[in-house]
Design a protein that fits this description.
The complex is a heterodimer. By secondary structure, chain A is of the alpha/beta class. Chain A contains 5 helices and 11 strands, in the order αβββββββαββαβαβα. Helix content of chain A is 17%, strand content 15%. About 3% of the residues of chain A have low confidence. Chain B folds into 3 domains: 120 residues, NADH:ubiquinone oxidoreductase Nqo5 subunit (Beta Polymerase, domain 2); 33 residues, no CATH class; 315 residues, Cytochrome-c3 Hydrogenase, chain B, CATH 1.10.645.10. Classes of the chains: A alpha/beta, B alpha+beta. At the A-B interface, helix 1, strand 7, helix 2 and helix 3 of A face helix 4, helix 5, helix 8, helix 9 and helix 18 of B.
């Protein structure tokens, strides 16, 4: 047993100082592509390389919708005119009202009831395992979500936040609805990952929804495929009213 | 063709039609079973020591084709033995009843149940059909989504789960009860359901129910272009994305006869081993966590995050998404980057070895693993188990050895095996495989070929091929068929978790309730990989 004490002490403190200080260690995020103005006469064929419609062409720009990005890197590799890439991770945003969120309960102040501590129930609705693995990393010494007053709870009855990963597979629909119904109010839903936001490469189909917003009302969305732990932390901080959301419009460096 | 000893001796009464197809250095032998002789033929094949891979059902315009795929088990098998053996059974579309081969191939159980559910085929003699992929409480009977006419894009309509549905109970005794676990359970866990039946302390029956996460990957792949299906292959199971992407890409490359550049072949092996190392460190973390040994769990978690960061910084993605491409890799790496990454892997392995030596001296930890969740050698063979679980039960099957692909024939590496088949044996195998993976990571960089990493290829024509890779959890097989336009018309994934979950109940039964999470962790299987 003494071995564990000694080896534990030898490793020392590993925790990131995010959100107080930005975390810039290489490899903490897969990043996202960035939009740019169209050059004169350019048709922007790089847009057509995107398999999920995350890139769009407007009159003067190539616009990136991070909610659809599945990190296939088609817009930066093997093309003569690659997009630029940003290495950020503060990607969380309030869910757009309309198609995807049935009836978001969000008022103007997002975090008022949750400023001190937040209990999170994680639900897997057809996830590939990567998003879930990144959620798991939140408890490791590097991210240590407890230091921020966030806790993973085993039951929805004690949960403030329902963190949902995966595209909303049909056979998880009823379990997900029941978990949401079991939560006391006020409650929030955090959708994590491109699949949870839009169905990703799987939905919509007869077995999959076009994102979990069609099953439970989503309040905050974290794009990424999977979003890195820091992006998920940013989502939780946003729900708690302790962070600013990613500016709307496009991603800039 | 006379040299194909195995096939030359197929008794006339079982098969009248044998074809041998040469695919590069490998041969695929297809034996058509005579009507009514499928069982005898399969028994004959099994007796010759062929290992069962899986069942592939294909619906052609006029007939059903059922493909029972095997490969020879031994090195040193007869000269001229085919690399792959397909037993083919066909019937007109109107005839949907096939004989069940369960008594000859125990491992085919779930394959037949899946085909019954998704194709609405009947397997005569199978004792338990129904409620498998499509849950009975929510789907009407007779729905066959894998059949050609079924439109996968349209929702089937709103279904409400039957509130009176109850799982089948096996144990009937005074005081017997069933403890349901899941589909939502524990802290951060994949969705799956287990019904544990008991009369007290010990689990008597463990009945898993999967496919809550079914995304119908095989169905939605149909009609898509090969590159789009590669995206699906990479993303249906994110924690071994590279291995599945690789298996799918190798199938496509076999169809299109695409030569992958030497540099890409070596780098693919290198990246696959990096994924294996990261994956196994993650499993070791889960095992430590399941025994509530938090210091060790934290130390393993640090190593896992270090490896994720290494992958992220080197390749752009922490789980190696977007790297595999048809014809090679989507990007190249600088010599110095690779060297630095290999150096960091060595450092991580050193820390992992220290963690191991602390763990094997912690009695309270070992008490929870030793002689718990046992799968015997005989069971492993009968169920045709794969990967670390099979190797912990003394079955040294590894596709990198048995069906060498990429550059694995050039490397020296161990295929670690243990004989006890308990949780501790599985943990030791994970540590040893992590070491072996790190060893290959070191070797693969010396003499790394120069040149490009991707072959530019023309659109592929019609054809079908099997791709395979030894994924972190075991043998993964991807069968792809392209139509005349070059679109995918059938995509079949046989993932290792599908094979191994089948035997999970063997390990969970006859052990106490409190061992269940530990057995679950020491199996370390993926639900998303199983559910597809």
């Amino acid at each position: 047993m003494a071995n564990w004490v000694y080896s534990g002490l030898r490793i020392g403190v590993k925790s990131t100082h995010y959100p107080r200080v930005p975390e810039n260690t290489p490899g903490v995020t897969p990043g996202l592509p960035m939009g740019r103005p169209l050059r004169s006469g350019e048709v922007g064929e790089v847009v057509d390389r995107c398999p999920t419609g995350a890139l769009k062409r407007t009159a003067h720009r190539i616009v990136v919708d991070p909610r659809h990005c599945v990190h296939c890197f088609q817009c930066v590799r093997g093309t003569p005119d690659p997009l630029r890439w940003q290495e950020g991770y503060e990607w969380a945003r309030r869910a757009p009202s309309g198609n995807h969120s049935a009836s978001s309960t969000l008022g103007e102040s997002l975090g008022a009831p949750f400023a001190r501590s937040l209990h999170v129930r994680v639900v897997d609705a057809g996830d590939c395992g990567a998003c879930l693995r990144e959620v798991k990393q939140l408890s490791n010494p590097y991210y240590n979500l407890h230091r921020l007053g966030f806790f993973i709870t085993p039951t929805p009855r004690q949960a403030d936040v329902l963190l949902v990963v995966g595209p909303g597979s049909d056979q998880m629909r009823s379990a997900l609805e029941k978990a949401y119904a079991a939560m006391p109010a006020p409650r929030r839903v955090l959708a994590v990952g491109a699949c949870a936001l839009t169905g990703g490469v799987f939905g919509p189909s007869f077995m999959c929804s076009d994102g979990v917003g069609s099953i439970v009302p989503v309040d905050v969305e974290v794009p990424g495929h999977p979003p890195p732990p820091l992006a998920i932390l940013h989502g939780l901080l946003l729900i708690a009213g302790r962070a600013q959301e990613m500016p709307s419009g496009e991603m800039r460096p | 063709m006379e040299t194909l000893t195995a096939t030359a001796r197929v008794p006339e009464e079982y098969s009248g039609h044998i074809a041998v197809l040469q695919e590069g250095e490998r041969s695929r032998c297809e034996i058509r079973a005579r009507p009514g002789k499928l069982l005898e033929l399969c028994r004959w094949v099994r007796k010759r020591g062929f290992v069962f891979v899986g069942l592939i059902v294909e619906q052609e315009p006029e007939q059903w084709i059922l493909r029972y795929v095997f490969y020879p088990s031994g090195r040193g098998s007869d000269e001229g033995e085919p690399s792959w053996l397909h037993v083919i059974s066909s019937q007109p579309l109107a005839q949907t009843t096939f004989p069940s081969t369960l008594e000859v191939i125990p491992g085919i159980d779930w394959h037949e149940r899946e085909a019954e559910d998704l194709f609405d085929l009947k397997f005569e003699g199978h004792p338990k059909l129904g409620d498998f992929v499509l849950h009975d409480d929510a789907w009407q009977e007779g729905l066959a989504p894998m059949r050609k006419g079924f439109d996968a894009r349209r929702p089937v309509g709103h279904r409400t789960a039957d509130p009176n549905w109850r799982p089948q109970r096996i144990v009937h005794a005074a005081g017997a009860f069933a403890m349901p676990i899941g589909p939502i359970f524990s802290g951060v866990a994949e969705s799956a359901h287990f019904i544990l039946e008991t009369v007290g302390e010990d689990v008597i029956r463990a009945l898993p129910r999967f496919f809550y996460k079914h995304r119908a990957v095989e169905k939605i792949a149909e009609g898509r272009w090969p590159e789009e299906v590669l995206l699906l292959a990479e993303r249906f199971n994110g924690i071994s994305a590279f291995a599945h992407g690789l298996a799918c890409a190798q199938a496509l490359e076999a169809i299109g006869d695409i030569e992958v550049p030497a540099r890409a072949r070596a780098l693919r092996a290198w990246l696959a081993e990096l994924e294996r190392l990261r994956h196994h460190v993650g499993l070791i973390h889960d095992i430590c966590e399941s025994t509530a040994l938090t210091v060790a769990a934290s130390q393993a978690a640090i190593l896992e995050e270090d490896l994720l960061r290494l992958c992220g910084a080197l390749t752009g993605h922490r789980y190696l998404f977007g790297l595999i491409a048809c014809g090679g890799l989507s990007r190249d790496f600088k010599e110095a980057e690779l060297k630095a990454a290999a150096e960091r892997t060595r450092d991580i392995l050193g820390r992992l070895t220290r963690l191991e030596s602390n763990l094997i001296r912690t009695g309270s930890f070992l008490d929870r693993l030793e002689e718990v969740g046992i799968v015997t050698d005989k069971e492993a063979r009968a169920y045709g188990l794969v990967g670390p679980i099979a190797r912990a039960s003394g079955l040294a099957r590894d596709l990198r050895r048995l069906q060498p692909y990429l550059t694995y024939a050039q490397y020296t590496f161990d295929v670690p095996t243990e004989s006890e088949g308990d949780g501790y044996a599985r943990l030791r195998v994970l540590f040893a495989e992590a070491r072996a993976a790190a060893g290959i990571i070191g070797q693969a960089l010396t003499g790394l070929p120069e040149g490009s990493v991707r072959t530019v290829h023309v659109p592929m024509g019609a054809g079908a091929a099997l791709g395979w890779a030894e994924a972190p959890l075991g043998a993964a097989f991807h069968w792809v068929r392209l139509d005349d336009e070059g679109r995918v018309s059938r995509y079949r994934i046989i993932p290792p978790s599908f094979v191994n979950w089948h035997a999970f109940y063997l390990a969970a039964e006859a052990f106490a309730f409190q061992d269940f999470p530990i057995i679950l962790a020491s199996f370390g299987l993926s639900v998303s990989e199983n559910d597809r």
